[in-house]
Amino acid sequence: xxxxxxxxLAVLFVAALGFALAPLGLAQLWARLFSPAKPNAVKNAIxxxxxxxxxxxxxxxxxxxxxxxxxxxxxxxxxxxxxxFAVVFTGLGMGACVAMLIFVLLLAEGLAWAWAKGVxxxx
Length: 123
Description:
There is one protein chain. The chain is mostly helical. It is built from 3 helices and no strands. Helix 2 runs antiparallel to helix 3. The longest helix has 28 residues. It is flat, with a radius of gyration of 27 Å. The mean pLDDT is about 85.
């Protein structure tokens, strides 16, 4: 059986499956052994803010909010890329400076586009 070329692949697949399912099985076993299954009014009570929820939970937001959030994330990622560049700025060559300049100019172009479209205005 070990002469099959796919035997080691099957063993690794079974090990990976067991590695993923073992914690789930242990959690289920722990819950059955140690958690009391006696629901009552106290256990089913609300606990986060103490208020009963009223109305529908579905709230529709304007798409401008999502665009504003995406722009914020883009410039947050820009800061993540600019910080290591600024730390090692003196040791880099001209190619790295040009690449970072192109990166910043593309982000500035995106900011100009968002400003022209009116994404940054809260109306």
